[in-house]
Amino acid sequence: MTTETTQTTDPKQAALSQIEAFEAAYGYDATYMKAMLEHAPEALEVFNGFVPMAGHREHAPLEVYFAAKLTAYRIADCGPCLQLAVRMAQEAGVSDALIRALVFDKGELSELLARTRDFTRACLANQPDCESLRTELSWELGPAAMSELALAIAAAQVFPVVKRATGYYQSCSLVTLEV
Fold first, then answer.
1. CB-based burial label for 137 (10 Å; 0-12, 13-18, 19+)
2. What span, in angstroms and rounded, lies between the C-alpha atoms of 170 and 90?
3. By its UniProt entry, which InterPro entries does this protein fall under (predicted)?
4. Per-residue pLDDT tens over the stretch 49-101
5. What is the pLDDT of residue 41?
6. Has domain 11-171 been given CATH number 1.20.1290?
7. What is the pTM of this model?
8. Contact 78, 172 (CB under 8 A)
9. Where are the domains positioned within the chain?
10. Mean of the per-residue pLDDT values for the chain?
11. Which burial class, exposed, middle or buried, applies to 39 when counting CB atoms under 10 A from its CB (0-12, 13-18, 19+)?
12. Which residues contact 153 (CB under 8 A, 6 or more apart)?
């Protein structure tokens, strides 16, 4: 005779464990996600559906992608979110020298990376040169890469806005960035 054992996993506990693992892996305060889990788990489920968009990259060159992403997070003015993006860039293999050049405006950027940074800034500020910069980059990178840059730029705005709107923007503060 065999005995079968079944494990039941509480979905809330599983989600909390995932959030805590993410916090531990990246040194990131995800209190706003824990609060969403507690008060509006359905909202967290929808939010989690968005998260893959924030990291989608198949066609954009690694450095170009992170040039857009880090520039966008810097403009979003969320220190902890920017630090998270820095850690993800490092994890992906972006050099610390390039990260410093993008985050602190210290160091040289290639022409392509400078155009990517300028495009990101123009896009977020709705500047008139946005379209000409987009056209130049699209010619060089192709439409698939441009779609990925668009997602990276847009996603960087979502996290600080969600934190602000849910009352957790105090965690968006100045931090001493570790690069």
1. buried
2. 26
3. AhpD-like
4. 999 999 999 999 999 999 999 999 999 877 889 999 999 999 999 999 999 99
5. 97
6. yes
7. 0.89
8. yes
9. 11-171
10. 92
11. exposed
12. 68, 69, 72, 120, 123, 124
Residue type, 112: L
Q: How would you write the chain as a 3-class SS string?
A: CCCCCCCCCCHHHHHHHHHHHHHHHHCCCCHHHHHHHHHCHHHHHHHHHHHHHHCCCCCCCHHHHHHHHHHHHHHHCCHHHHHHHHHHHHHHCCCHHHHHHHHHCCCCCCHHHHHHHHHHHHHHHCCCCHHHHHHHHHHHHCHHHHHHHHHHHHHHHHHHHHHHHCCCHHHCCCCCCCC
Residue 110 tokens read as 């290639």
Enumerate residues 6+ apart whose C-beta is below 8 A from 137. 115, 116, 119, 146, 149
Residue with token string 């931090």: 175
